[in-house]
TrEMBL record, chains A, B, C:
GO terms for biological process: carbohydrate metabolic process. Belongs to the glycosyl hydrolase 42 family. GO terms for molecular function: beta-galactosidase activity; metal ion binding. This is Beta-galactosidase. Keywords: Glycosidase, Hydrolase, Metal-binding, Zinc. CDD domains: A4_beta-galactosidase_middle_domain. Residues 401-586 form the Beta-galactosidase trimerisation domain. It comes from Parasphingorhabdus halotolerans. The active site is at 142 (proton donor), 314 (nucleophile). PANTHER family: BETA-GALACTOSIDASE GANA (PTHR36447), BETA-GALACTOSIDASE YESZ (PTHR36447:SF2). It holds the Pfam family Glyco_hydro_42M. The keyword Hydrolase applies. Its EC number is 3.2.1.23.
């Protein structure tokens, strides 16, 4: 695994570039991402390119042997460009423009902006496509950041109509698919259809789901436009985009089909603060992030690129500027995050950013260096971990163990009709992921279109749109599989299946969901040693349940290894279910304390202590006096990492 | 009382209509509401009517003897109509359009949309007005649903100016009535006046109140337009509209003057979740609804139609889709709700809807049938209650007992100037209603214009605009009467009366409110065994108070049976006040446990257990070994109902 | 000190004016503010002035010897004026108009509205400028009330570009100052620059800060326009504006340079309810206001006018109408507030308003008189305090003791980039003020440009933009000085200083802030007997800290009397720090109970009991049997005030 950083030569006086490059090497970095926000310097006036400075910057980095990932600058079109076609900006749900003055001020559907992107990307690719220092390209930057996937512009409206016409051909088919008869919402032609916005009450959910599919497809084609240009002019370089955390607004699996490497931007502290975690978790992990946040995304994005190659393009190196509260990371945790990425198979961990900028929006975002050019804590840890990584042989990602099936459309669907406010798809997936990880298991998070053969256990937290083809695929697998609540609850058109949920799953599991209930906080259904909250389903079946509530209602049903969970589960229930599945699958598990996580990669075994207290690996029977540690030792301090070589006989241990 | 359902033949393949009709009869339903959202099928292209399908649907229902309530489809104008005059949609308070894509996408003040409504209603009335199966018409659907009463469109602005010119004739009179001198808000002519919207800080409250009166009057005239057309072309049929729960945006008393039957849509679980109830109540009654929610509306809407005729047009039969959380009703509670409506004098309980639709916005709203055509729990209970109703002779609503006076303008006024955030009119009324009902009393909720003679007790939770005529009316009554806080606090122009509150009431009760105070949560004034919260008034009077705080300040004052309560009361205080009033009025009361409610209708006595625990009617001295039950028995299980015949000597028991 | 009231003759029938004037005198008032909302009466039609009524009103007041403060009516332009140039209204952050219908419906940058203001102010000044009864003018009313400083109108955009061109001359300088290279935000000319509004994510903080400076400057010039006209035509009269509470949207120090008297509008109960105080404080002080609210503003605004002259232009006399909850003031507290203003050096306390208006927006705002013309509690207390004031010789404000340095730009800066949601500048200043006041100290709150010589202690709660000139100034002072967190953290361009925070302060205090952390509620750092919350900084220094956390990290560092506090402090920590500073400065302190406050003025010593319980001044060693009280006595009841003459030897007691 390589280390790198994000660098903005245009932000600094040219006379310190050489020193910057030298210091990067000295710390142990080998790759640098540059250029992705520099349009106004590359093309300061319409049509007038200034390559000189960028030539020099690239050469400066190249001269010390740094490899370069060059970003296309399409996330920050300059003011003169926006002023030349003011309707290129996106329109928000209230009908307001999303103006110039920060970044991502464009609508994916604006055809002339796409032309401008073609032009600038072509120019960049032609200038640097064959430069030996350029090893990869990053397209744009963080698609969707600041809620920029869905736009209600005129361009988007016209593109949506075209998308619908292509999908449905006949507007009558659309009327039926959406159930437009419901409230006289029938259309006579595609030109009558508007985006599902500012309606009196909620718009038709089928309308919304198609709009989100459309918006996601716009991202896919926008990205492909750039990739096609770059591949043609820069052969042999990796195509990369940097995804974000807990972000499901577009289909990353689809975008990933056009990439060589899926990268993501890892800010564990910011994500903990900004997302659904409880106050208790936000305090406990304020300086580490929840132990599963980074790993979840590593495992998710590894599955979002056809070849399974992935990186961390931006790694939090200190306090950030954008969360409600921004504490400093625990000393040592930047190192831990770096080794953790390695344990999950990353090719690169690139710190964001080289030096903290003293100006503009992100001036309070830490870098490896402080604004006064001294090393910040991030640099200290990067230097240490660079040495440690060198001790570890690169290994491939190892054998398949547990697969979680993730579907972006599920997120869109449940956001469109949650039915209960607390039913959040990404949280349900995360809960199941976390339960598996607390059993010490290696997890792959994959698309429902992925090859599932070879996995020993499969978990689909919820798969609301369930095709017969998918059911046929799982029929061929002889491993334990769990489907979570609301699986098979909708057709692809966002309708309830004629045979009721779980739809096509009934082919292998004879049960029907006859009624569902969402439960407000505090309203729970009692199990023996756990509570069901948020969601419960009434099941009609002759199957004997394998988990019941105290009132005898079944909440888990299985047949031939295929299981259906008819409730929102607690961690306690999940642990029991997964332990049973692992036992059936003959997968070794290890019940871990709350703050400890394991990961194996090839024959390397990693252990990470995300807690404040030290842990003893021997006490947990994870290590013994005989264990030879490559990194760390059996006593794992706060933020500590240990790595040792796994034994052959424990092959089955995840 | 009849049972019915809401049915949408246009949603289903025609080949199942016959079976649907047969099954409705089989369950015990006799009325069906249809048509209210079907405009796009009745008139698929401008001016081209398609009656054939509706003819067949009506005949299919008629053939098995079902009676039909036909809805006018004006809540869902088709897209082609909206596109032909895009300014017919309402404009929200932010100036945004309220677009096509769901329902109720029209502004009541748009004159050309009114013409279109005239046209479609006339066409419907001419086609079906004399069809023997048509027994009633429903105008539009749920006026005001999704916050659609007040619009800030150009049409509304022009209509408002006209309304003002008619009301005030002279703009000088308006300037005085509103007190426009206050901040140089004086107008020189009516054409200078805009809706009270997007002002820098709060607009003049008189301006707001007149705008809400105007908006309400627009509903009245919109409804009357349809009623007049229908009455002329469909003689002998009942005119109905379906009101909503806890909804006060327009004056239902005024709309009701043009109707034969006031109906309403009863969703006890959704209302509990969405309104002001405490978390404790929301958990305790999650699957039953608060015991007074349905009854409150039954008693309210009975008073919203001149003849006192009323129905439940939509009865929740299972989980709904639109609350934040949507649990399933307790088994048996749909039956309880149905018998409860009967006990309060309903003519019809119509379940919404026949079959759960698998598509569009309400696909998660339960019906009597599941989407797969099997019977849901609602159908099971409807079938049972249909048999039970047949056992009970219809009786009239019985003698007058307690009247609550309800004023829609009071709701508008306190929303415009709450003076303390927690002063909510509808909640105050509900609190008083609930206290009366927990004493076992029958309650009528009536307009201040209603005939009050014959009532044994009268309660006006608050009547801020109090005319001398009304005071004269109560002078003639020799029964205990309670006026709540802020009664008489404003003139009809939204000014403080010259003689101070309670204004004209001082004619019968010599006291003045010299100062009022709103209290933040936690700030209370101590009574002996109760707390005053939210609101307290400083009273200037020589009267000896009948309730005082521990510091001797009076909060209840009375003279000749007329009482004024100068505080927001707790349930404890209300119970004491009402017991005293009942004793003075010689009205029998019964202190009920929290979950039990009684209602008498003619000589039938009903008891309803809204709780989870069983209750014994004997233990409560409500029944004895000798009681002959028509329904149920002395042990009342959870969701249980008992009905027995009242004794003559207990006439005074409510 | 004089007493006065705000009076609106135009609201009342002319035949009661004489009686009103007589009663004002009778109560003890000597000044009356009139006219500030009367534009529609002064100029009922464009260009047609009606002076007659105002002539008579002024003469009526003059006839009984009342002095008049005449307001310019520019806060309430009439409808005809707005209709003549509809673009004169402000545009809010969502792009919506801020319409006519209440007040302050204008944009400060609209040039033609400025012309209209010139016209009406000139007309008023020419008519009344030399009237002997007119002793002062109030410009406009409460600049900024209802969030009216910042506007996004076309006028504002053009004026902003002009302001920028004047400030930067060259757009390249602006690009560098703002760091526009960051996200390709560079401009090619000033005409490309828009207000920082509706951007996709946060705009450049330098852009925002300049927009706020611009908006503030617009207020300054708007005010100066009026002052210049008035001074020329009404020589010898005081120029006054009435500021608001906890309001920092414009630079009051700058506006104050054009005024003779800074006045403010004091509503302690409303401010307590509406601002950040804890629930415990909101309940404890519901009827008094927090003990430091009024005093804080007295001391703040005394420093906002070059000569130190100040008044209370509007004094809450009873319940108000505009807070979420509006309880009544404790009996006696209006008197206390009045004497408290005197103790802090006010020239006038003017009650708002004479008589409660029965109409329009503020009809629930108490006056000295009730709407029925009887005296309300406010009048009772005003009459009493008028007599008491007469007993006390006027004295000057006394010697300098403690100075707090207040910077409006600091408020704008921290609002633009809080970095942690709970870092609120005004709250930090208030906390420090309150800690000082609980030690019995007299405090002046002054601009960083003020003359600091003569103060015995100086506290800068935070001074993020710290010039070398200011550091030079403090070098010359030999008194203890405390700088709070984030001092020196930014340049004037909103960049991090090259030498890191605290920037230029390093010149006298050798430390660097190498990292900052914001802490979510509940995340604290432990000190020995206190907790650090919200904010903590990591300090690089060789200095030995004078306060440390339990883990030894320093949070307070000092050298030669200059101290830097690297954390958000608790009251406990502040008390300890200030006691040490006071001891070093040889300033006498007195640890007061929570509800008691002291203030000295010349040789008068005041004590105020803001609590519900009585306090004994002897028990606190503040008085003895020998003390001769001018007002009150040694036992201070709830809302009680005592005044006595200070001894010469206790000169050093604040
Ligand atoms: Zn990023
Ligand atoms: Zn409905
Ligand atoms: Zn004011």
């Amino acid at each position: 695994m390589k280390l790198g950083c994000c660098y903005y030569p245009e932000h600094w006086p040219e006379d310190i570039w050489v020193d910057d490059a030298r210091r990067m090497k000295d710390i142990g970095l080998s790759q640098v991402r540059i250029g992705e926000f520099a349009w106004s310097r590359i093309e300061p006036e319409p049509g007038r390119y200034d390559w000189a400075w960028l030539d020099r910057a690239i050469d400066t980095l190249d001269n010390v042997g740094l490899e370069i990932i060059l970003g296309t600058p399409t996330a920050t079109p300059p003011k003169w460009l926006v002023d030349s076609m003011p309707d290129m900006i996106a329109i928000d749900a209230d009908g307001n423009p999303r103006n110039f003055g920060s970044r991502r001020h464009y609508c994916f559907s604006h055809l002339n902006y796409r032309k401008e992107c073609e032009r600038i990307v072509t120019a960049l690719a032609e200038r640097y496509g064959n430069h030996p220092a350029i090893v990869a390209w990053q397209t744009d930057n963080e698609y969707g950041c600041h809620d920029t996937i869905v736009s209600y512009s005129e361009s988007a409206k016209l593109a949506f109509r075209k998308w619908l016409a292509e999908k449905y051909a006949d507007v009558g088919a659309l009327n039926i698919a959406w159930g437009n008869i419901f409230w006289s919402m029938e259309y006579r032609n595609f030109a009558e259809i508007d985006p599902p916005n500012l309606t009196v009450t909620e718009p038709n959910p089928s309308h919304v789901l198609d709009y989100r599919r459309f918006a996601s497809d716009e991202v896919v084609s926008f990205n492909k436009l750039q990739v096609d240009i770059l591949r043609a002019r820069s052969p042999g370089r990796d195509m990369i985009h940097n995804y974000m955390g807990f972000f499901t607004e577009f289909n990353h699996h689809k975008v990933g089909q056009d990439l060589d490497v899926a990268s993501w931007d890892s800010y564990p502290l910011g994500f903990l603060e900004q997302f659904w975690f409880s106050d208790e978790e936000k305090l406990r992990y304020a300086r580490q992030g929840h132990p599963d946040i980074a790993a979840f995304h590593h495992d998710l994005y590894r599955g979002c690129c056809t070849g399974g190659r992935w990186s961390v393009m931006e790694q939090q190196p200190g306090p950030v500027n954008w969360a409600r509260y921004n504490p400093a990371p625990l000393d040592g945790i930047v190192r831990l995050w770096t080794l953790e990425a390695m344990a999950h198979g990353a090719e690169l961990v690139s710190y964001f950013r080289w030096r903290q900028a003293p100006f503009a929006q992100e001036q309070m975002h830490a870098g490896l260096l402080r604004p006064d050019n001294e090393e910040a804590q991030g640099a200290v840890e990067a230097r240490q971990v660079a040495r440690e990584i060198a001790l570890l042989e690169t290994a491939n990602n190892g054998q398949k163990s547990v697969a979680i099936i993730f579907a972006y459309e599920a997120a869109w669907l449940f956001e469109t009709q949650p039915q209960g406010q607390s039913f959040r798809y990404i949280e349900l997936v995360f809960e199941m992921y976390s339960a598996l990880r607390q059993l010490g298991l290696n997890v792959d998070i994959v698309s429902h279109e992925a090859d599932l053969s070879g996995y020993k256990m499969i978990v689909a937290p919820s798969l609301p749109i369930l095709s017969s083809a998918f059911v046929d695929k799982i029929k061929a697998l002889a491993v334990p599989i769990l489907f979570g609540p609301r699986t098979g609850s909708k057709t692809a058109d966002f309708q309830i299946p004629a045979e009721l949920p779980p739809g096509a799953l009934q082919d292998v599991l004879p049960l029907k969901i006859k009624r569902v209930q969402s439960l407000r906080p505090g309203l729970t259904e009692k199990g023996d040693d756990h509570d069901v909250s948020r969601w419960i389903e009434d099941v009609e079946t002759d199957l004997v349940p394998s988990e019941t509530l105290v009132d005898e209602r079944g909440i888990l049903f299985g047949k031939n290894g295929v299981n259906y969970l008819a409730a929102w589960p607690s961690q306690k229930l999940l642990r029991r279910i997964f332990m049973k599945m692992a036992s059936d699958a003959d997968v070794g598990i290890c019940e871990l304390p709350r703050d400890l996580r394991l990961r194996s990669l090839g024959d390397l075994q990693f252990a990470f202590n995300h807690g404040i207290e030290a842990l003893s690996l021997s006490d947990l029977n994870l290590a013994s006096a005989a264990t030879e540690f490559l990194i760390g030792e059996e006593n794992l301090p706060s933020a500590g990492v240990a790595v040792w070589r796994r034994q052959i006989e424990s092959q089955n241990r995840a």
